[in-house]
Sequence to fold (318 residues):
Amino acid sequence: MNRTVYFDYIEEHLNVLATRINRTGKINHLQLHNHSENFYKYFCKELYGWEVRNLNEETQNMEAIDLVCDTNFLVIQISATCTKEKIEDCLEKGKIKEFPGYTFKFISIAKDAGDLRKKNYKNPNNITFDPTKDILDVTSILSYIDGLDIDSQKRIYRFIKSELGNEIDIVKLDSNLAKIVNVLAKENWEKADGLVTNIFEIDRKISFNNLKNAGVIVSDYSTYHPRLDKIYCEFDIQAKNKSNSVLNKIRTIYLKNKAVKNDDDLFFLVIDEVQKYIIESANFNQMPIDELEFCVYILVVDAFIRCKIFENPNNYKC
Fold:
């Protein structure tokens, strides 16, 4: 596997873990190898090289501190509660005084902590604590992992696969792709609305990418492009960038599979992967498979026309 595949796996499983914790509000409901509270203990060791010990194994429900790293002089609180009040409550606990010269780290394992890094905190025990560096969350952890070399990502991938791969059910999440398909399935597509004004350009792009069987699909479904454009406009009224998120997801799927040498095969692989992603979304409304395929063809052909997937010939006009 390449670096992207390792990172995608890590990202998916950490986000799923965060979602599960966020829903239950507690770590120990996960029942991961019966040592769910220890997951981040071992993860910190793999990720940062911190040789930590779990204070909760020494004293049940230790206040303010979950993990201690005596080699790096760190005290670490791991929490599903991510608020300023929670952090200040930890900083005020008397237990902190037992670790002079240590740095306090707060790891939010369920929610984004970006806003918390910008705040000021009461620190009556004067332990070393810089919110900009010492408040971690899944987003900042993933950013750190993304900058690692492939061997390091592979090592972390193997650890997460060993710890979570067969233990955690992948939580189905809502997606805008599924949402737009649900909308398309309710439309009457017997008559396409509007004319495709850049049909010559589309034909040029089909030829440029050596699409044969897929080219027929593009030609057939390009007639729905003007109608979909109107639907996207209505879709974006609900919230900004909804249509962009759909198009960017299709593009991401295309880029991840771009190594496929045959352009026809690549086109149909994108169709399959988009369809799979939609089916796995929590908000997908079940429908006959041929109706789903019809809607996916409309979306992928539209992405082709809009310059989101496949190469463009010189001076191509989307």
